[in-house]
Amino acid sequence: MSFNVRLKEYRKRAKLTQEEIAKKLGIKRSTYAKYETGENQPDYKMLEKLADFFEVTTDDLLGRDNKKHDKEPYNSLKEINDFVRELGIDSVGFFNIDDWKNLDKEDVEEIKKHFEWVAHKAKTRKK
C-alpha cells in the first residue's frame, strides 16, 4: 500500500477531517490533501510529525517492512491484539491464548476481515 493510501487510512481511523489534521499539524488543508492524493510528498520533518500524530513509525507510514521480521516467526497474537486495539477494543479477554498461538497469516487476515465486517455492521446499526 502506498504512502498516500496509508495516510488516508490512518486519518479515517482517527475519524478526523483533512482540515482538522492540517490545523493540528500547522499546515494548509490543501497541502495535507496533496499528501493523501499523492500529488506531493512531505519532507522528512513533516513525515516525522505525521508519524508522531498517528502514533506510528515513519516506516509504518511509508509501508516499509523491516527485513528483521522475515527472520522472526509470525506472531499471530500480536497481530490480533494490534488490530483489536485499532478498532478501539481495550480488552481481548475473550481470546483463549492457547487456541490462537498457531494461526498462520491467512487465518489472521480472515479474522481481521470478520472483525471489520462486525464493526461495520455495528456502526450501521447505530445510525
Automatic annotation (TrEMBL):
Record keywords: DNA-binding
Keyword DNA damage: no
PROSITE patterns: HTH_CROC1 (PS50943)
This protein's record includes keyword DNA-binding: yes
Any Pfam family the entry gives: HTH_3
SUPFAM superfamilies xrefs: lambda repressor-like DNA-binding domains
UniProt domain HTH cro/C1-type: residue ranges: 7-61
UniProt xrefs under PANTHER family: HTH-TYPE TRANSCRIPTIONAL REGULATOR XRE, TRACRIPTIONAL REGULATORY PROTEIN-RELATED-RELATED
Protein name as annotated: Helix-turn-helix domain-containing protein
Species in which this protein is naturally found: Siminovitchia sediminis
Taxonomic lineage: Bacteria, Bacillati, Bacillota, Bacilli, Bacillales
